[in-house]
DNA sequence: CTTATCTTGGAATAATCGTTCCAAGATAAG
DNA sequence: CTTATCTTGGAACGATTATTCCAAGATAAG
């Protein structure tokens, strides 16, 4: 008997992700969301509950739609170091050019926001970090079996180092860093993990 | 003949730095500044001009008082790789424990804020980046003369990589990352730059 | 002590914040 | 087509935003 929603919450959430990603969630008001999505305040609150929950939902969706596929591709790529290099080349390209140029990464950006301390947000941040580090580690293990890694390298520490590099790329790209500079930095780290023959 | 200020602008600016650094400038209102400093709105506006300029002034002061001394110490330290290691050990300690634990770095945090695009802010961000990278490069050159670096290492790219690592340490520490994990990541990068005898 | 000049406290501004509320509209089952 | 139930548009809410304004207070020179 009841009425049904006049909009698609999935589509709306995608629009909210874009909004929070580009402008920043803290400086984006509900009025902005209403204008960008065409959905009224009432429907927004009835569907998502409030800004904090909308923010958490958008962050979770970003992780699933933007980050996770790339992480899984990296973890499944068996090439070793070339897979990691390709990951960073795609990352830098996505951060510095194209539709999302200079937007940074929503997860990285969220690290610095005021509500980063909330348990619900912190959990997603940690999930993102663990997923990326695990993917990096898988790629490093593949590199190891192919004899691409120098002796004595700790894969866990190396995976953490590469994950940190990715965060920094996201951060600096939003502030206008040049793609070439970022890639050179990444390449230096990667070369340090390789055998002298591989680099 | 005129009246003189009833407060010390230098002291006030230091208090503002602490406020913006810990809480974030975007979510800190002028009312918060008034309460924390004890200086009235009128005096604040008469002295600093407005929030945007207050923010730029605080950022500039952070760079001079917090960052610059450490950068200069790094650049002047002639030990080479141990100097860089010491820099990161102090950094991680300052970010994860003590008075400023989990505050991150004001400059790093500002990369993600909405007004990071303003020319006045962007300039300070770039100044900070150049200063840190130059200090890293100086330390790497010292390492080179001491024969600590592996053959074929590009000092510029390596300096950029280490600078990026520092940003990531700042970012992740604010979100609660463990000191040991951060140090392990840094160590992995540093080891990759060293000769097999040095690491 | 008068006076010129700056500073200060606090009220007031208009705009925006997230959120709530309710009447009007839309839906689909009976 | 009636009716029960949800959705929707939009007004309204109190709180907070950055900023402005002005009278009252404080200072130091003459």
List keywords for this structure.
mainly alpha, homodimer, elongated, 0% strand, 199 residues, DNA-binding
Structure description:
The structure is a homodimer of 199-residue chains. Chain A is mainly α and 199 residues long. In chain A, 70% of the residues lie in helices and 0% in strands. Chain A contains nine helices and no strands. Chain A has helices at 9-23, 30-37, 41-48, 51-76, 81-96, 106-110, 119-145, 155-174, 179-193. The termini of chain A are far apart. At the A-B interface, helix 7, helix 8 and helix 9 of A face helix 7, helix 8 and helix 9 of B. Chain A binds a DNA duplex (30 and 30 nucleotides) through residues 1-6, 29-31, 39-43, 45-46, 50-51.
Brief write-up:
With 199 residues, the first copy, chain A, is mainly alpha-helical. The first copy, chain A, is 70% helix and 0% strand. The structure holds a DNA duplex (30 and 30 nucleotides).
